[in-house]
Structures are given as structure tokens and as C-alpha cells.
Amino acid sequence: MRNRLTILLTAGLALAGSAIAANDPSAAWSNANQMVLVTVPDWNTIEGTLRTYQREHGDAWHEVGTAQPVVIGHGGAAWGIGLSPPQHDGPQKREGDGRSPAGVFRIGEAFGYAAHADTAMPYRALTATDWCMDVSGTPLYNRIADTAKVGAAALAGSSEPMRRDLHVHGDQAYRLGFVIEHNPDGVAHGGSCIFAHLWASPTTGTTGCTAMTPAVMQRLLAWLKPQAHPVFVLLPQDEYARLHNTWHLPAVQGGR
């Protein structure tokens, strides 16, 4: 009888948790106390605005710092796979579409070309043998890995060298950045290797990442704290206006 009661109680708690999550879409990021928010005018525009917010123990969000320009994917934005509930009214992120994923995502490790960076986030010092796997259906899809450790065959076909300065004519895009945890389970064709990184120019789109000036990136990395469980949010303005109440997002006037 006691075991049966324990099972019933556990099942009841699980159902209650599911009900809470269903009624509160923001439950998946309720422990987040830092937010990097990017809004864009519409699904197809590459220029956006980045703002940063923080809160204490789930209280109201308040803005810190000043709004800054960013650029996103050259194809615009599309709904991604992250913490936020699936959305079906709008484009859906697919591998190779040049769109940046929209929604709410955990912020993962920071990375860069230097041995160290001014950040409390976990930091990966990139090497010439680090690649991000963008070949759908492979075991390491959507993961950064080192060919010196996993073998060149495991990353065969990847077009995403992380030391772009060594492999792509001195490119500085990944000199400093962090992982946006889109499609963390590696759903086939769901999109891969989504980062925040340095921009080429304020009018040059990315292949699906969010890019900014070195000064903005340095400020973000110095501010982000792993114990604050930071999240990255990207939404077109109309979607932001529609969702900011139910997702408990900061009240940004007009989503701008």
C-alpha cells in the first residue's frame, strides 16, 4: 500500500508539473536571471537591436546597459528549437537556410582565439583542429569537436572551422563569441552551429548567427554569469508584442 501511495504521489506531482508548464510557457527558463534580447523588425530583416536585462530570483526584469545594433542571418529569422514552446505561424529554422533561430535559448560556453577571456562563463580556447559539425544526421551534428580528439573522420564534411582566422583568410568572426543553444538535441536538419559572434559590418548578415561589435561582445561576456542561467531571446517585433506577456518577457515598447 505504501509503495502504491508513493507511485500515485509521484505521478500526481509529475502531472501537476506538466500542467504548470502547459499553463506557463516560461517555466522552462524560470531560473534565468539574465537575458540577452534581440528584436528585429520582421522575419526577413537582418538588422536588429540587442538589449540586456537582469532580475533577482524571478522578480521583474529591468534593463541594464544601453541598446546596441546587431545583425542576424542573411535570410532573416525563423522559429528555432530551444526552451520556448514550438510555434507554427511563421518560418521554421532549417539547416542551411541562412536564418537565425527565433525563440528562447540557453546561453552556452564562450569561445575565442585567445587562451583566456574576461568572462565567468565556461570558455573554450579554440584551436586549429576545432570544427562545428553542420552535416545533418551525423553523430556530432550541431556540436563543436576537436579532430585531434575525435578523429578527422568524425567531422568529415563540416564547413564550419572554428579558427576562421587560420582557415578562412584571417576571418575574425569567432575571435570572441558564445554558443546559442539552438537545437541542443541535434534534431536532423533542424539547424546547427548557432553562435553570437563578431560582425563583419553593420549591414552584413550571417549564416544564421547573431553578430555585433567587439565592444558589445566584450561587455556581454564580462556581464554573463553561469549561476544566473542566462538566456538568449530573438523575436520579430510583432511576435514579441504577441508573446511578451505569456512568456513573461521584459516590457519593451513595441518590441523595439
Poorly predicted residue ranges = 1-21
Structural class of the secondary elements? alpha/beta
Hey, roughly how much beta strand do the residues contain?
25-35%
What is the residue-averaged pLDDT? Answer: 92
Secondary structure: helix percent: 10-25%
Question: In one word, what is the shape?
Answer: globular
Determine Rg (CA atoms, Å). Answer: 19 Å
The span between the termini is: 58 Å
Give the SSE string.
HEEEEEEEEHEHEEEHEH
- The number of helical segments is 5
- Count every beta strand, where a strand is a DSSP E run of 2 or more residues: 13
Number of domains: 2
Main sheet properties: 10 strands, mixed
Itemize the secondary structure elements and their pairings.
Blueprint: H1 2-23, E1 34-40, E2 47-54, E3 62-71, E4 76-79, E5 99-112, E6 123-125, E7 130-132, E8 144-146, H2 147-150, E9 160-161, H3 164-167, E10 176-180, E11 195-198, E12 210-212, H4 214-223, E13 231-236, H5 237-243
Parallel strand pairs: 1-13, 4-5, 5-6, 11-12
Antiparallel strand pairs: 1-2, 2-3, 5-10, 5-13, 7-8, 7-9, 10-11
Can you tell me about this structure?
There is one protein chain. This protein has helices spanning 2-23, 147-150, 164-167, 214-223, 237-243, and strands at 34-40, 47-54, 62-71, 76-79, 99-112, 123-125, 130-132, 144-146, 160-161, 176-180, 195-198, 210-212, 231-236. The protein is of the alpha/beta class and 256 residues long. It folds into two domains: 1-30; 32-255, no CATH class. The strands form two sheets. Strands 1, 2, 3, 4, 5, 6, 10, 11, 12 and 13 form a ten-stranded mixed beta sheet that branches. Strands 8-7-9 form a three-stranded antiparallel beta sheet. The N and C termini lie far apart (58 Å). Mean pLDDT is 92; it is low at 1-21.
